[in-house]
Queue: 2 jobs
Job 1
Amino acid sequence: MKKYFYYTSLLLLFVSCSKELSFETQTFTAKSSLPCTDDCPEIKITIPVAKGPDVMADSINTKTLNTIKEIVYFGEKPYNVSDYNGLTKAFIGSYDEMKKTYPDETLGWFAHIKADIEHQSDQIINIKVEHETYTGGAHGYHGFRSLLFDANTGKSIKMEDLFTDKNAFLKFAETAFRKKYKIPANQNINSTGLMFEKEQFQLPLNLFYTQQGLLLYYNSYEVASYADGPKEIVFPYESVKNYLKYL
């Protein structure tokens, strides 16, 4: 009987471990079949693919794919594809169409996407997506996207669900932001040349859990011109732990 319980316990432990969430780095690339010299298009996507409990992994992988589809496309809306191979082929296909229409133009398209696990704890998983793309114009675009997931369910965490009191954190963050960027407390948030919507301080679209603390990251164009670049501010976890539901 003791042996039965021993082997049963081992089996349960094995099953439990085999169902733990893990990540496997995968890379997807595509190239054009058209002849090219110095304007050869390229696309490379490197991402952590979730493995483990189906519901959790599917939730994380679907959100990640949909986010990258929002970044890598040409035209009025994202490509209607269901995986990364389809996405890379669609991007190169758009290039091929443009090159056939304008054969004498030097297009030089590219898309470089690299995603990593920025933070993982018992409560939250943070995937950081770094992206750089160019599909014509004066310059390309480089930026970062933050994907936050509940570590126990795999569900995406919305901004309003991240804080115990979002308004209180907003006030706290604005005070620190004004101090860092030397914006007087009695003046409009845009008084030094920033471009906050409705002239009111707002949290960025992307927050990252980093080794240094909670990072508020405003990509280029979000609150400042491309020339002024991104804006950011980091709060040590000790200073913001009372505002956060997840650590």
Job 2
Amino acid sequence: MVKNLLILNIGVFLIMVFTKVDLIDIFGLRYLEATDFRPYQLFTHMFIHSGWGHLFSNMFGLFMFGPLLEKMWGSKRFLAFYMICGLGAALIYSGVEYFEMEKLNRLKLSFISSPSPESYIKFSRDALGNDDLSYPQLLNLFEKNPDNKEIIDLAKNRVISVYNKISNIPSVGASGALFGILLAFGMLFPNTELMMLFIPIPIKAKYFVAMYGIFELYSGVQRNPGDHVGHFAHLGGMLFAFLIVKYWERERNRFY
């Protein structure tokens, strides 16, 4: 099953590369209330990758940690685990994204109902970060002419455009399922020593997974607007993996 998943993910990426068909636009996961959201994206996003580096990191993790879990569980159970973790990651990520987009939507509506340079800056910083104030020249004009109808209309159009663009950014990748595999490996083989690529020091799987989880939680809570990594998707995959492994352990211990 690991081999089949590798072939599927790599094959889909090669189709994108050689046919130039934008599968990310079609199958990437969108914000739940985005105009381009489709329910099937909750599943299809995990088989799409945005670049060679993205593909390699996920497939390398699957290749390294997947086979031992598949050998332990069997192919069907491993596939079920993989898909449930991927779906769980999508649901957690979508829930967090819904909360964040609702906040951004309130800022958008607040600006439209009562436009001012201050509310324009607040929206822009929340949406795009401190490194982008949404066309500084427009902001300068707005600050000098806060009652100018033409400038207000330009600012409104800009705010609406930014909101619509952000709400339709697709999320792709098998990272949620991969982080589920990583957590399961740490739970089931906690004392297995791993050698990290860039730091040649052996570390037990349980500590490696714990550090990764803490890092993802910290990065997700920080929510840097310039950070396009789905940290809560990773945490969602780990959460569902924990629940599945615990449920299967309980099931195994039943003798009736």
